[in-house]
Amino acid sequence: MTRSFFAPRSLEDTLRGVTESATELIDAVDCADILVAEGPRKYRSHAATSELPVRLDALQEQLDEGPCVDAARSEFFVRCDDFRTDPRWPEFAPKAVEAGVLGSMSFRLYTKEDTIGALNLFALTANAFDDADEELGAVLATHAAVALYTANKTEQFASGLASRDVIGQAKGMLMERYGIDAVQAFELIRQLSQNENIPVATLAADLVRLGSESASPPAAR
């Protein structure tokens, strides 16, 4: 199992490998998904093994309660053995039962820096999970958290490289136009950024865009 997770593959393929493994390796799991936090009280379902987890996640976001959002926000692990008798989610639980789901396990996906989301495993029967299921679910959640963390860092790195390139272009334009060196050009960008309360990278992109427009030949009449 470990070898398959670390083989080169896309993020979505890796997450789907986690949820599909959950349904294959844990007998009680009937469907699964990964809920990823996209902002305050905003989530998106990934790698769902059926439409049911997507519906349940949407309900929890709408009602602002449920085991999955609890795990995504603060709880390390949330287990419900029977939604018919669990009092923790008075609005969500009856809707879960109505959808045919009676039990769930949700594992918080987190790093030392932040919470990423939750791995959610659902059962159509009550009292379906045991301690061994919890342990295996925690292992799968770790794989999902590592994959999401790596993807986020890769995206941040790519964004950082792009910002550095744009800032370099803006510095070059200022150096050529005003006859200043690289240090002076960056200091000018930094001061403008502070004065206008605009991030350095955004200001640099604006300078490059304006410089390109002013350098463009006039349109033919």
From TrEMBL:
Domain ANTAR, chain residue ranges per copy: 147-208
- Keyword annotations: Kinase, Transcription, Transcription regulation, Transferase
What are this entry's molecular-function GO terms?
kinase activity; RNA binding
InterPro entries xref list: ANTAR (IPR005561), CheY-like_superfamily (IPR011006), GAF (IPR003018), GAF-like_dom_sf (IPR029016), GAF_ANTAR (IPR012074), WH-like_DNA-bd_sf (IPR036388)
Q: Which domain of life is it from?
A: Bacteria
Gene3D superfamilies attached here? 3.30.450.40, Winged helix-like DNA-binding domain superfamily/Winged helix DNA-binding domain
Query: Could you identify this protein by its name?
Result: Histidine kinase
Q: Name one Pfam family in it.
A: GAF_2
